[in-house]
Amino acid sequence: xxxxxxxxxxxxxxxxxxxxxxxxxxxxxxxxxxxxxxxxxxxxxxxxxxxxxxxxxxxxxxxxxxxxxxxxxxxxxxxxxxxxxxxxxxxxxxxxxxxxxxxxxxxxxxxxxxxxxxxxxxxxxxxxxxxxxxxxxxxxxxxxxxxxxxxxxxxxxxxxxxxxxxxxxxxxxxxxxxxxxxxxxxxxxxxxxxxxxxxxxxxxxxxxxxxxxxxxxxxxxxxxxxxxxxxxxxxxxxxxxxxxxxxxxxxxxxxxxxxxxxxxxxxxxxxxxxxxxxxxxxxxxxxxxxxxxxxxxxxxxxxxxxxxxxxxxxxxxxxxxxxxxxxxxxxxxxxxxxxxxxxxxxxxxxxxxxxxxxxxxxxxxxxxxxxxxxxxxxxxxxxxxxxxxxxxxxxxxxxxxxxxxxxxxxxxxxxxxxxxxxxxxxxxxxxxxxxxxxxxxxxxxxxxxxxxxxxxxxxxxxxxxxxxxxxxxxxxxxxxxxxxxxxxxxxxxxxxxxxxxxxxxxxxxxxxxxxxxxxxxxxxxxxxxxxxxxxxxxxxxxxxxxxxxxxxxxxxxxxxxxxxxxxxxxxxxxxxxxxxxxxxxxxxxxxxxxxxxxxxxxxxxxxxxxxxxxxxxxxxxxxxxxxxxxxxxxxxxx
Length: 638
Prior knowledge:
It is a single chain. By secondary structure, the chain is α/β, with parallel strands linked by helices. It is built from 18 helices and 33 strands. The protein folds into three domains: 37-241, Vaccinia Virus protein VP39 (Rossmann fold); 259-293 and 401-463 and 561-632, FAD/NAD(P)-binding domain; 342-393 and 467-559, D-Amino Acid Oxidase, subunit A, domain 2 (D-Amino Acid Oxidase, Chain A, domain 2). Helix content is 27%, strand content 26%. The strands form seven sheets. The chain has an eight-stranded mixed β-sheet with strand order 6-7-5-4-8-9-11-10, with helices on both faces. An eight-stranded mixed β-sheet has the order 17-18-16-27-28-29-26-30, sandwiched between helices. The two termini are 38 Å apart. Mean pLDDT is 91; it is low at 1-5 and 630-638.
């Protein structure tokens, strides 16, 4: 069943009956866990019958283990598996991936109340609750325990989840209320999709022993048997994909020996850190002398996206990126991340009309965004604002340069600065990266994260639909500006003061290739501020003289469709160039897009479950940006 609510992205949450102390779902008339001892039931049914502790202890270094589940519910099964992972001699740099679907997620408050029943899981529950997403449909990736545990939550119908998600499970938890109470979770469509997401020898366990479920699993290719149930339940089911006597396929250690990332901006630095934390060795190459100096070198950067009126794939990618980045940057709070909140002003009549239609057409949880009046915006910002807008309570601003340098400070990241890459050449299954008289860097795989310089480095013939757009920001002394307490953005943006300065901008210079600061661009930024926040700039103060102001010029890399690029490099015929990936085209929203796309690309490079649904993976695919002129004969052949 496909969700048809026209007012997405909010999703209906579970209606919980707490009258007996334990959570009971009113919709399905069933309990979330055994009232006697739900945690012991989970351990008996799912942990023990899938032999998880034994299998965890046998994993090779840096190997992932993937568990898939058909109903997340209170998260009890997930937390029990996480605890078992922690208590077992798990592999160095290994990662537990837990993939789960939930059509009616619990609210944050209900989830917290349910998990309070298990004090021994509190340390795990606290981390889950800190990152638990707002009830919006689609895929949510949560990175927990410093990257040792990754939770992929699909809020929506389970059949849609198995169509959209890309993973191969080592073990299955078949949950989701009793088949008689919630038959939609146990349909042939759902069960038939399980083998396609499983490896030979994958195991499964379920609390039910219903004959129809058993027959469907056998038809799907599982060898099934009954096992003793828990508590009052006499029987349960366990199974193995294929012949029960054949050994399972052990999860493989990551076999990528070395990866080079060209470009040490936000995208490259995030990807390098992500891969290093998964146990991979990474070389970061940049022509500058340190990370975060080009377009990522601004002293401040706002975290926001502009969500479309239609909740299409573009809006889904923007929302997923924003929510993931807000969670990701929490670890840098107080240092490089400042979660002040952000007001997206309705800075003109046309933008006000757009925002009104956006609110009328969509339903976003207030934890994500809400429409506010000019009075409310002024109160939040701490300065007079003449217009209202959209309030993003969990957004804010970053110090991008410092963030980049912190990210690449890792024992498995080798820094290669002052290296001006000239060409990439394949040789004997390796990639040789040549610079200006430097010794070649030789690696298994290359990721080009070089922003607007990316097209010059792609080792393919033909053109590419990338474009460099100049942007200049203006540094303003705080004493000459009424600085807001939150980020205020509209036609441009104005940040809270930091270190006696604030930043405004950025210009959008389509036909100006100059890398030097321009007085005229400073004037444009000041004029933008006058229009967006009237009276914010003290024009009579000598502190804001355009001829005396400092700033920075950067070049955004955009694509023909203004959507980012991440993934294997494809040619015009859809064939991958083995060992080369692209990560670029983030435009002016790099701080928002980069964390999720770095997670996605690291998933691909490490062979782990993918955090993007298939529809969004296609949206960021590289093939759409390759343009080649074909000969007449080639055109006929194609």
